[in-house]
Amino acid sequence: MAAKTSPADAGATLEEFVSARAAGRIVELIRGEIIEKGAPSAEHAAVETRLGARLEPYNRRHGVPGPGGWWILAKGELAYPGTHEVFRHDLCGFRRDLHPEQPAGMPMRQRPEWVCEVLSRSSARVDLVKKQRTLHAHGVEHYWIIDPDAETLAVFHHKPAGYLLALASTTGETVRAEPFEEIELVLGDLFAREAR
């Protein structure tokens, strides 16, 4: 389903976004527009689920078996005050040394250190351009883009002038991707369609 924007939503405020969410709509507030989020494809949902499971060792405090040190959340709604936008990220991560308590609220107000978007045809332009610009402007250190159709992972690292492509990989490769270098990611496993 393609993202939809109502002309009446141009110049929409955070309060209007909250009202839309209270009415049960799944939306984002992007550059003054309330945009409906389309339902993800099965491939999109599978990649998101598999990556979340693979990163689970990080989703705990330090001192337990595994790397730990992060809060990793799926479908987190985050407000970006500098541009008055609210994004519903596929996955986002907060370092526990910077966020001792799990981020809370809807939308959350804390800035993540890592964001991952899984591309879909209806949202690719937003994820690759608009969101990337906003995340950079707010200092989000790591931005991952996963394309289930092309079966690729692109890892971007924040630099003052813009995001630097730190890693590009595809099916058949095994990588250690920042900021989660302590574990290996087998790209083929993220995109596998066979029964597990």
Give an account of the 3D structure:
Helix content is 21%, strand content 30%. It is of the alpha+beta class and 196 residues long. The protein has a 6-stranded mixed beta sheet, sandwiched between helices. Strands 1-2 form a two-stranded antiparallel sheet. The chain has a two-stranded antiparallel ribbon with strand order 4-5. A hairpin with a 4-residue loop joins strand 8 and strand 9. The longest helix has 14 residues. It starts with 13 loop residues before the first helix and ends in a 5-residue tail after the last helix.
DSSP summary: helix tally: 4
N/C terminus separation: 28 Å
CATH topology: tt1808, chain A
Instruction: State mean pLDDT (0 to 100 scale).
Output: 88
What CATH architecture label applies? Alpha-Beta Complex
List the helices and strands in order.
Answer: HEEHEEEEEHEEEEEH
**Number of domain modules:** 1
